[in-house]
Prior knowledge:
Blueprint: H1 2-29, H2 45-69, H3 72-84, H4 91-96, H5 99-135, H6 140-161, H7 172-180
Amino acid sequence: MIRRYCKQYGEIILLLALIAACAFLVSVGLQIPVGRGKSPIVPSTWPVASLLLIAGSSLIILLLRFLRKSQPALEDKQKEDAQQSDTVPGEGAEDAAHPQRAFYTILFMVGYMALIPYAGFMVTTLAGMALYMLSVGVRRIYAIIIPLLLTALITGIFGIALKVPLPRGVSVFQSFSYMIY
Length: 181
């Protein structure tokens, strides 16, 4: 009974809890004291903006969930189509939730955190993202282009524009990062 209840309403409960947690953290973030500067970006700007994006995304997912639930004819049609074809419904979902992918994610996150002080942000992020994307089955072209673009974007925004010190690494990696930013 509990398992069926959690399966049916678990996503809704998780989204509501996430929205409530974000609301609490936004209220805490707004209490961060503002310095004497006249800058429009205060210490609470980025945390509050991030939390508002998370809460907004959760709210959109929750609304889409209710809209999807109110359209049973579409779900029935999809089930009929799946029964008429030779494929088993939900067969593709098993691949997406394979436990091996969770292992890869944990392995790459631990490796990323361990290597970033030595190889620096840029090299570790490029290599780590590309290897991770290849390990979970992303096409090679995307596993090259997306890490390049995201690393350049993050380095440009934080390392160059906002002057946030990103890890530079040691030796050759440090020299390379000084050439870029």
